[in-house]
Amino acid sequence: MSVTIYVPCDAAALALGADQVADAIAGEAVKRSLDIKLVRNGSRGMVWLEPLVEVATDKGRVAYGPVEVSDVASLFDNGLLEGKDHPLSLGLTEEIPFLKKQTRLTFARCGVTDPLSLEDYRAHDGLKGLQNAVAMQPADIVAQVTDSGLRGRGGAGFPTGIKWKTVHDTQSPRKYIVCNADEGDSGTFADRMIMEGDPFVLIEGMAIAGIAVGATKGYLYTRSEYPHAIAMMEQAVEIARKAGVLGASVLGSRFAFDMEVRTGAGAYVCGEETALLESLEGKRGLVRAKPPLPAHKGLFGKPTVINNVISLASVPVIMDKGAAYYRDFGMGRSRGTIPLQIAGNVKYGGLFETAFGLTLGEIVDDIGGGTATGRPVKAVQVGGPLGAYFPRALFDTPFDYEAFAAKDGLIGHAGLVVFDDRADMLKQARFAMEFCAIESCGKCTPCRIGSTRGVEVIDRIAAGVETDTQIEILTDLCQTMKFGSLCALGGFAPYPVMSALTHFEEDFRPRPESQPFVQAAE
Ligand SMILES: Cc1cc2nc3c(=O)[nH]c(=O)nc-3n(C[C@H](O)[C@H](O)[C@H](O)COP(=O)(O)O)c2cc1C
Ligand code: SF4
């Protein structure tokens, strides 16, 4: 009887040699005349264990990792196909603490199924949400998503149901669903993992969104740096179309919905929804002034829902299990689960889906295991390059939109980047301003000019020139950028800068190693 072996085809696993390991396993099986079925699954999200090889046994799937090509022969020698012991053995996959402690709703199938098998998808509760949706009135779908408490996972945390209702209520012969898969935040990879590990859940979520608001066409916008995700999504769309999940009659219903994958050249600002629409229309990624909101006048001037990958991929489970089921997870106004992406200098880096409400300390120390270097954690940047740096003193902050805002931070797309005690927070502040200067679309002055001036001011502080005055100027500049910028790129760049200054002021004061002052333009 054939034994099923799983080797991920996710980009993180590929970068760590998964293709070579898969080839070695296939070759070894041929050499030993063993009958195996090799499935290229998505990643389970435990990046430090990749490539993670799993074997289906009577007791469940048994994991080994991280596996290298040179380990393959010994794995076979030790009874890999029966899930027997080996130095790389991790036991039953589901019992690995990092995985066992999670609540996987959105990522329930990621790493479990064959990403391009619609059969496998159906066998693991796939399409149940869409099946329910096609039997409902569109307004009732919108109401269910609203009741679930789902908020946008792209960064702003705007209630998804309210956005959908605006588009639903706007009269137009043509409307669009746009999935924001630009994923530019540092330390984030949840969108990529879904696209590579469970593409049908995103297609299902987009189809439900289309039916709910009366849109028959969707676009998935991602970046050229995601070649594996693009290839996976394109194949999945083709399969879904052939199977009648997409097309003139979704699952044989009265509703039509189809979608295309579009690739941007890769600019951080093209993740901002209006710049994204410009890019999708073939223009330069320049931010549009609001109003009009995209919900009223979006892609090609038509009412448009723009949602992040995780927002849309969370809809199928809500439509399958109900709004109350989803809403029961979480705290305060942050309902449901959030896929934390733990990165940087951390021992156990990866994706951890959990209900809102864990404290930052629990995430970094207990789940992430502290730093990879073993040194003390100095700071954690939460929410991408525009997110604040949190010191250990704020590690009791629960992971919740409002709790983070109350500490002058944001949870953004839920990326966490950990730094040890060697991090220079002045350099990190400079990096934030420089990033803003490089990525600015240039439309408004506080961001375009302010970020460049910000770099210069920080350089003066680094040189120990008139420190107090320069800190005052920097603070004032940050206020101007925060309140005067047209979009959140310029508006949030002050967050990493001011948090670094507030919590790590000693790094901004003259130090023996202060560099001589150098003009930024040189
Ligand atoms: C500079 C900038 C970059 C952004 N990048 C992304 C991104 O990569 N992905 C994303 O989903 N949202 C991004 N956003 C947020 C989007 O503008 C928008 O709020 C989001 O796509 C809405 O979807 P949601 O409600 O599902 O979160 C960015 C915003 C700004 C200001
Ligand atoms: S804040 Fe920056 S990125 Fe946003 S519109 Fe202004 S110049 Fe463009």
Automatic annotation (TrEMBL):
Its cofactor is FMN. PROSITE patterns: COMPLEX1_51K_1, COMPLEX1_51K_2. The keyword Iron applies. It holds the Pfam family Complex1_51K. Keywords: 4Fe-4S, Iron, Iron-sulfur, Metal-binding. Residues 426-471 form the NADH-ubiquinone oxidoreductase 51kDa subunit iron-sulphur binding domain. InterPro entries: NADH-UbQ_OxRdtase_51kDa_CS, Nuo51_FMN-bd, Nuo51_FMN-bd_sf, Nuop51_4Fe4S-bd, Nuop51_4Fe4S-bd_sf, Thioredoxin-like_sf. Belongs to the complex I 51 kDa subunit family. PANTHER family: NADH-QUINONE OXIDOREDUCTASE SUBUNIT F. This is Formate dehydrogenase beta subunit.
